[in-house]
Each structure stands twice: as structure tokens, then as C-alpha cells.
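Predict the structure of YtkA-like domain-containing protein.
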Amino acid sequence: MSCRNAIRTLTFACCLAASTLANYAANADGGRLVHVERVDGFTISIFVAPDPPRVGPIDVSVLLQRGDDDAIADDAQVAVSMQQAGDATAFVSGPATREQATNKLLRSAWLELPAAGRWSGTVHCSIGERDFTVPFTIEVGESPPAWTAIAPWFLWPVAVIALFGVHRLLQRQRKNPRSDRSRPEGRLLQQ
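Done. Here is the predicted structure for YtkA-like domain-containing protein.
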């Protein structure tokens, strides 16, 4: 492996590791846009994180904008409820507040979904004398395996060992540069 190829491999491995770890750590609210609707002069945008939604804690964030100038509706009370399709007992709800949201333009509700399947959600908004609801549906997958939560702690030493190996390879090539021109191409056999 030439020095140039080793550097390219090392650069690719570092970029891959950085992008993987960056995606693993991105747990801010917002998430995937699942529904947008205009109701009674307001635009309601609903976001769900993680993407894809899985069994366990789920963040449902709501962006509520006034229709005339797209300003954020500060005086709204928002609640989110979700029910699993076909199961009347699987029901969760909670208030969506700015205190729970990382992005203060949104209102966020943290809900614990106990089962996989299709879930029907409803965002309940109350602004002054006006009350309205916005329905949405999401498909919730099975919870990820438990090992995925601790995998980064076991995998980072592998990356360090690989970097050390590439470093040693580069050091060896710098100390003992091969000059293929000084070697004979083959030996003549004497009989």
C-alpha cells in the first residue's frame, strides 16, 4: 500500500466515523416533518423524532404559525395525544411546551409509545377563544436492539487501533522507501 493510498484510506475512515458519530448524537427536537395543515387561519407543522419512530420515548414537536404573517403563535396551549390503531387501551398524551423543546420556536411533547404499529395522533391547540385539533398518523417500528445504545463505547477502540496501524504503516514506508528500479527484475538460472 503506497503512502498516498494509506492517507486516502485514513481520510475516508475518519470521515465515515465522524459522520456516523454525528448522526448518532443528533437527538435534538424537530425531527421529520409528518404533517402540515392550515386550520382557522393558522399553519400547524408536526415533527416527530427519532426518524424512523420506534417503540420507546418519542418527541412530537409542533410549530404553530399565524396565517397572515407566519409569525409564531406565542399565546397557544398545545397538547398531543396518540392512540394505537385497533387498540383502545394503548393511549398516551401530554402537553407540548417550549420548556421541553430544544428549539424554542417549537412546542415539544415527550411521549412513551409502548408498542409498534400504526399510531393515530391528535394535536389539540387552544388560542384565546379558538380551539382546534389536527390529526396525523405515524408508523412506529420495533425498538432497536439494546446493544446499539452501547456500541459506540465498544467500537471507538477499534478506530484507535486502526489509526495506529495506519500510522505504523506510514512510518515504515518513510524509513524504508523501496526503489523498484535498483532491484533486478528476475534472476537468471545458471545450469
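The longest strand covers residues 56-66.
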